[in-house]
């Protein structure tokens, strides 16, 4: 066990964990930040996506020891009021069905749009292709990402 100081959602946290504990479990079980979901545990589905230094990253395979100096953002920290342009577009398009994948989808889309403010449909499809949706709302996800790109950030 070791003590880790983490910067998450612009707040300082301290927690004790084994160095090889996945960030996902530190977020959920140690810190109570449960918006980030467990999907596959193998970085294949995207449900656990968070931002690490602004990059969309799979937290299920990233150890807590690897992020002790990083700036981490979870879905809870994307915006204080849930009014990030991607979140607004998600609501306007009515993307979620079961909603399980949505935090990871939103985090991936937000990081992508920060790098590419005016994406083409093929660019959106490529950027979002690593996030799986069990309900198959891919057409609404693409539409929401396109809509978010037109919103003022």
TrEMBL record:
Keywords: 2Fe-2S, Iron, Iron-sulfur, Metal-binding, Oxidoreductase
The name this protein goes by in its record: (2Fe-2S)-binding protein
Provenance organism: Siphonobacter curvatus
Transmembrane segments: none
Coiled-coil intervals, chain numbering: none
Domain 2Fe-2S ferredoxin-type: from-to ranges: 4-78
A GO MF term: oxidoreductase activity
CDD domains: fer2 (cd00207)
InterPro entries reported for this sequence: 2Fe-2S-bd, 2Fe-2S-bd_dom_sf, 2Fe-2S_ferredoxin-like_sf, 2Fe-2S_ferredoxin-type, 2Fe2S_fd_BS, Beta-grasp_dom_sf, Diverse_Oxidoreductases
